[in-house]
Amino acid sequence: MATNIGMMDSAYFVGRSEILSWINSTLQLNLSKVEEACSGAVHCQLMDSVHPGIVPMHKVNFDAKNEYEMIQNYKVLQDVFNKLKITKHIEVNKLTKGRPLDNLEFMQWMKRYCDSVNGGALNYNPLERREACKGGKEASKKCGASQPSAKTSTAAAPKSQSSHNPRRNDLSSVNSANQSVKASKPPPSSVPAYDEQITELKLSVDSLEKERDFYFAKLRDIEILCQSPEIENLTVVAAIKRILYAADDDPSVVAEAQAMVSLQQKEALSPIVETSSEEKMNSDSQKRKCIVNYEVDSTLIAALSPRQRLSEATDVHCSGSPLVTY
């Protein structure tokens, strides 16, 4: 049973026309666009068709027009998912806005799930189940009214043609005038082509918005990380902020950030050089002190008299110094 399906799965390559024909045949509806199911009521009944009795259809509202009414339908759908232990995430905010791409992707997942469920209701009566819903009867009437209207239009065509046969000769001049007016109007076959182009443009806009939101979320995560107190004062973080908060698309901003990082590296190496120079100065001063002390001692010894020198040697002899020989 498919609950989590990857984005590269074949289910997400099913076309809109196939999705619409599947919905209309399963639930006996007459939807012309996938985003018409954005209220969530169609999703609830699709789950009821494969799991009979698990969906409380009396809580489903087919007449939901406002966002809060649609949210109630999606709450019912989420409860059904929880009962069946389905981990599929429902993006309610995007679905209720009626975006074609988001509704198409979720409906593609619904079709894949319903196809994967074995033992569904073979004798499912969608009209009877929809009567318990709010606005379900009206939805069934719309579907039922659209089908007889098509039949009556096709049946009325030959009748009108037969009734107008006696007047053909009288209205020949009027028909010629009407033909000139119809020639100036655009053919009705071009209208579906424009609708398809509009739908494709909406899908491309939705995909671009989704990609924009993805990269914006990544940049926001980087910004939150840079604002943490542990690393906020680092030079690398400051360089990253310099790039994030740049107002214009200026290539010099990257160069400035690199300069900040390189300057910080030079400052980190400079104390080592200073300490080595201080050590050299200290060693040189100690050598100078030793030389000065030696010169002072030699001058003092030269200034002593011969008797003082002899007394000092006697002191050394009395002290038992090994430097004096007997």
TrEMBL record:
Q: What superkingdom does the record give?
A: Eukaryota
GO function term, MF aspect, one: microtubule plus-end binding
Localization terms from the record: Cytoplasm, Cytoskeleton, Phragmoplast; Cytoplasm, Cytoskeleton, Spindle
| GO cellular component term of the entry, any | spindle midzone
Record PROSITE patterns: CH (PS50021), EB1_C (PS51230)
Q: Write down the SUPFAM superfamilies for this protein, in alphabetical order.
A: Calponin-homology domain, CH-domain, EB1 dimerisation domain-like
Gene Ontology BP annotations: cell division; protein localization to microtubule; regulation of microtubule polymerization or depolymerization; spindle assembly; thigmotropism
Q: Where is this region: Disordered?
A: 139-194
Q: Which Pfam families match?
A: CH, EB1
InterPro entries in the cross-refs: CH_dom, CH_dom_sf, EB1_C, EB1_C_sf, MAPRE
* Domain Calponin-homology (CH) intervals: 13-115
Which residue range or ranges hold the EB1 C-terminal domain?
A: 183-253
Q: Where is the composition biased (Low complexity)?
A: 145-163
List UniProt keywords, sorted A-Z.
Answer: Cell cycle, Cell division, Cytoplasm, Cytoskeleton, Microtubule, Mitosis
The family this protein is said to belong to: Belongs to the MAPRE family.
Output this protein's name: Microtubule-associated protein RP/EB family member 1C
Q: Which organism is it from?
A: Manihot esculenta
